[in-house]
Specification:
six-stranded mixed sheet, single chain, Rossmann fold, alpha/beta
């Protein structure tokens, strides 16, 4: 991602991604939509934190007669539930159409993650970037691997003293210093 003073904004078509990712489909089929939504959101929390971008996950009201509402999950991630009879596609299209008008001085990137081809054409027409569900999954996997290579597990201590966790050469050097031998 290109660094700028304004982080990129990633709009995620929640149920589209759940339907496209095999592991989220399994969670949905086994445990229900609630658990698959939670798994998607937690995955995006880690991804957005590492990539330093903001994200909004959009879920359809799913036939619930409720008004739209938004939850701030972290400082970089929001969850938006559409109003009754409003689809996530409609919300995303409206958001893309008004995005540049709401942010005229800033030119942050707007990226829409969905595998819906009609949605792709529409959001690109509004000037947003498009990312398929598979591409997002690849990006997240790459990010996880980079994060794991930066993580170095601690060696198991051989006792309760710090001295015991040192390598043998360092232990020998310290022992010589303690005895006054250089």
């Amino acid at each position: 991602m290109v660094a700028s003073s304004h982080p990129a904004l990633l709009l995620v078509d929640g149920y589209n991604i759940i339907g496209a990712w095999h592991w989220l489909q399994k969670i949905r089929d086994r445990d229900g939509l609630e658990f698959s939504r939670t798994a998607l959101v937690e995955t995006l929390v880690n991804y957005t934190g590492y990539k330093a971008l903001e994200a909004k996950v959009v879920f359809d009201a799913h036939y619930q007669n409720t008004p739209s509402y938004e939850e701030k999950h972290t400082s970089k991630l929001w969850i938006h539930y559409t109003a009754f009879a409003e689809t996530a596609d409609t919300y995303i299209e409206k958001f893309c159409a008004s995005f540049r008008h709401r942010n005229p001085s800033a030119t942050p990137r707007l990226i829409v993650a969905t595998s819906d081809q009609a949605e792709r054409q529409t959001v690109v027409g509004y000037g947003a970037e498009w990312m398929s569900a598979q591409k997002l999954a690849q990006e997240i996997d790459t990010t996880k691997r980079k994060g794991n290579t930066n993580y170095r597990p601690r060696q198991k201590s051989q006792g309760r003293f710090l001295f015991n966790s040192l390598d043998p050469k360092t232990q020998q050097t310290l022992a010589q210093w303690r005895q006054g031998i250089r």
